[in-house]
Task: structure prediction
Amino acid sequence: MSFNSFGNLLRVTTFGESHGAAIGGVIDGFPAGVEIDFEAVQEELNRRKPGQSKIVTQRKEPDTVEFLSGIFEGKTTGTSIGFIIRNTNQKSKDYNHNTNVYRPSHADYTYDKKYGLRDHRGGGRSSARETANWVVAGALAKQFISQININAFTSSVGDIFMEKPYQDVDFSKTESNIVRCPDEASAEKMIDKIKEIRKAGDTIGGTITCVAQNVPVGLGEPIFNKLHAELGKAMLSINAVKGFEFGSGFCGSKMKGSEHNDVFNADGSTNTNLSGGIQGGISNGMDIYFRVAFKPVATIMTNQQTINSEGELTEITGKGRHDPCVVPRAVPIVEAMTALVLADFYLLNRTRQV
Amino acid sequence: MSFNSFGNLLRVTTFGESHGAAIGGVIDGFPAGVEIDFEAVQEELNRRKPGQSKIVTQRKEPDTVEFLSGIFEGKTTGTSIGFIIRNTNQKSKDYNHNTNVYRPSHADYTYDKKYGLRDHRGGGRSSARETANWVVAGALAKQFISQININAFTSSVGDIFMEKPYQDVDFSKTESNIVRCPDEASAEKMIDKIKEIRKAGDTIGGTITCVAQNVPVGLGEPIFNKLHAELGKAMLSINAVKGFEFGSGFCGSKMKGSEHNDVFNADGSTNTNLSGGIQGGISNGMDIYFRVAFKPVATIMTNQQTINSEGELTEITGKGRHDPCVVPRAVPIVEAMTALVLADFYLLNRTRQV
Amino acid sequence: MSFNSFGNLLRVTTFGESHGAAIGGVIDGFPAGVEIDFEAVQEELNRRKPGQSKIVTQRKEPDTVEFLSGIFEGKTTGTSIGFIIRNTNQKSKDYNHNTNVYRPSHADYTYDKKYGLRDHRGGGRSSARETANWVVAGALAKQFISQININAFTSSVGDIFMEKPYQDVDFSKTESNIVRCPDEASAEKMIDKIKEIRKAGDTIGGTITCVAQNVPVGLGEPIFNKLHAELGKAMLSINAVKGFEFGSGFCGSKMKGSEHNDVFNADGSTNTNLSGGIQGGISNGMDIYFRVAFKPVATIMTNQQTINSEGELTEITGKGRHDPCVVPRAVPIVEAMTALVLADFYLLNRTRQV
Amino acid sequence: MSFNSFGNLLRVTTFGESHGAAIGGVIDGFPAGVEIDFEAVQEELNRRKPGQSKIVTQRKEPDTVEFLSGIFEGKTTGTSIGFIIRNTNQKSKDYNHNTNVYRPSHADYTYDKKYGLRDHRGGGRSSARETANWVVAGALAKQFISQININAFTSSVGDIFMEKPYQDVDFSKTESNIVRCPDEASAEKMIDKIKEIRKAGDTIGGTITCVAQNVPVGLGEPIFNKLHAELGKAMLSINAVKGFEFGSGFCGSKMKGSEHNDVFNADGSTNTNLSGGIQGGISNGMDIYFRVAFKPVATIMTNQQTINSEGELTEITGKGRHDPCVVPRAVPIVEAMTALVLADFYLLNRTRQV
Result:
């Protein structure tokens, strides 16, 4: 029972505060013999890192990962893979005003009550900086299950939605704009929206859609580790996430069985895919797709009433460098967690028949 | 690593097929000294059981639980609690036509591919009959954390939504109608809808909302066992669930930070509760509320095209006794899983400070 | 985290008190497609059951296992296997004198202090009756890894040791005498010893040796789940066990490296096998052998001073039907736990290379 | 399921090869609010480090631990504690002759077969260097459960045994000689023995005894996580360990029940303590004591026949700097693992009653 671990057979255990010496983790159960492309790992980190564009936080952190074990002469050895990412650009002073004050809709209050104390610098462990660890682990997982294609993208910012279905866009376009929406027309509107919000010192929510293609049939365990339940848990672990739906999702709750059922073709594929590629908790070989809702970032640049740890009313104004919208930087995180879930079940599935 | 287990410190491990000899489970980690109200357990099972009203399946199963261990002279002893529920009303013949045929949007195809064989009778392990086990475990959990009030209810059937916010209804009314919606006006419309759907041999989806009140501050672990991530995983484990959202949920993704932040009162409570009682993965003492989407039941009474295990196209018509809408019977299941999650974190929280 | 569970990928979770309604368990992760020989399972239970010979307890219990799930048309389905064994011959009255009294070197005192209450009938959960569950699970594991031969036998009773090395005896002889020692000359002496001890109202300890042959190379994880560490934990879980050694064991601690090293042959086998078939926590294909020490049974038929739960000094005399020596009945338990450990690592080993 | 993790509620996950960049780990579940004495941690590492005396390996490594997270202003925060120890004195060239050759009674052969490749430098992951990680984690655990006194010491080297019972020695003397035996007369003989063995280019085994005093009643779980079973697993995880016994151990197997039972005193203590402080898997408040057998180090300075990965016979001679006897440096490792086990059960025990 480890509350900083994710996964079963392929299991990542992490540590690190946003303003401590380093973050990092241990990847356990990674199979031996996988040739690691270190540049590809760093590229994934670069997609997540701060300061990459005008619409994300202007903090500059190189986010360079150092692998410490488990890889020898370019290949995984089957032993645990330790890694760290040094924290280099912490401006702890930006948070001195927070020592004693609970920022609204942050984790300051709950950490203090749960643990009796907290590292107030930059949110400490509750900072989304932690997700850089997940991107490292997910990048390795992607290389292990490289036959599966995982593509996440920004599907809405505020009330601006990508209008095309995912089948009609080209995923290779996702990285061609800074909001990571593969539909250029929608992307432009989303970027404008975020710029406007940032100018107002405010923040905005959004959604990410993720599609996994070429997934083998049979991944997922049918009772308490249903494939979609693990994906849901993975997504709900990402900072700021408020909701998860797969396949028909919440819309499916309004439908009739005669509309919702996916009719089989002779080859086992289905005509429609309202199931979202998962039936009874197990992948059926069709595209897996799901949607993740992100709330607006809690740190805003305007004045808010709040309390301090003595229960006195006080005021707080956001300082430092923050994201006006978390969604563009969360795209690689969604992909990383999806890769971890799928790789875990992929390994496990080798043990389910005699 | 047990794929038929749920929970960490309080952990339930289950077994059973819908048409086997019995279903049952083992509840491990339940603390010693809890006085068990056996009638209350049976009442929860009765809320879930088939045949209880005109709008659910007309199968009759008494669903009587037999406790085999872990309770002595009416009190839990701290040892594992074994229990079984005999299967008494299996009409396996109803499923003979399914031996070789994959029912659309069921788990027949994926089980066969994953395991190389399957128990075709009534869905076998993939049947929602399994959830009776969860209701037993959840009923015990409820008795352990009896100070927390957990109330789930039907919040929509198809496109009929309960219009009042949960704060404006009386949860004690939930059981006063067969659809389990505490707002009588909405309940009537929902019941009519389900009757109409059943008459057409069709099925319909819906949503359940669940509210947990009087939850202590501090429950939940902040990284990979966030309280809402565990609740999400629990809900997504329930048969037919397609989505989960808590607090502001998917609506929150359209909001601005200045609208979404919950301002603190001097006592640590918040003015609004878009956070849904959870901040940074940890309960903050406010109401926890979330919403769960259920797809329509896949078994419909009309003819559908499908394939058999040889990959030949064939037709199938639903037989036997099935639910036109799974939502009313799922209300106690949602509550049970919520109780299991909260009780688990409640125990764990005793270990987080020196 | 389940404290009534054993194993990782193949995982058994158990319940049951010696004088409750039933004992039983859930076997999770058992691969699909294994044809189950139910008679072989019952035979293993018969080897463990009370009343089977003159030198074990004269209690009569049929110990009939009922499988409730996970097996369909004679084959495992990959879903969890539930089973129960009804308790039929409980004479709870035999234990009425114990309600309030702590039997020396039993678990009465520690259970009471740990849980605040206890089921005093026959030791409750601390009874070795629990091990019948393990024999069921182990019997299934044996059938899954049937190519591996696991043979345990009584290697000493008190100070009577089997003098021949295991290589010089015929394991098929183990079942031909009631003490389960494959060397007939030693067996006779052991049986006489136990009869003498029983007559005196006393009990005696002993050791069991277990040999696993034809084990594939590569089983075991090299850091915290070393093959011998898991075997050791498994053996130390058996009631009355006080020690475990494998290969050269405690004798090895007196040796020099030049004596102890096992020199390789060209085919990877070794000339000697002081390593006991395990190097660096991983099986090397040679025989795995280990020895387990059992203390004398704590229940004796003579008067002993003790205390009750009020801390008052009192006296106690063993009543009921007890084993004068636990070792003969523990032989199938040692084999069952060995089978569970090996089967678990056997499955796991499928996931260690790309 | 993590095979580089140890513990349940308090859980350490490690990584690192002897000749990689660093070793390290993550300590999860450590309660918040423990003030950390960093010097005490380093002192424990110094007790384990190479080069500390004439009778251990002459390798010089500072073994300086760097904590990266989970501790703020000198106190634990309840979040995961990451740490690393840089490898500074690797002479990888010493191992070039091993690239392709399997050292007898090492893990070279089994790693190669299990993973299909291996890091041959210094044993890679199979090196006892890993245990430095355990010492770090154990040092923190000791500080959490500081009321419990844990004292391990060298109780034999080859056939030289400490003759006094542990009750008759002064544990504060353990550190006053380089072999770590608290009985000076025995210590001298042991040191002479090791010097003689080293001069011959050979190695020798030995045993360590460990005593835990002032342990609260109630630690340990009664079925599969018995206190002694977890201690046994912990000890059997240490490199070169071949056996474990607690209380009366293997000697107990020769005794009669009337000799072996521990009679209660009115206060719940026992007159004798053949149980070794554990009854039914649960601590009873008496001293816990156990003994651990270490085989002689496999690397010897004389010529041995062996094979290479092509299965060709070849010869090997130990090079580099190695321990003639592993026991003196293993004393702090035994204590560290004991502390981890006890601290884990100490936390868990808070959850066992309502």
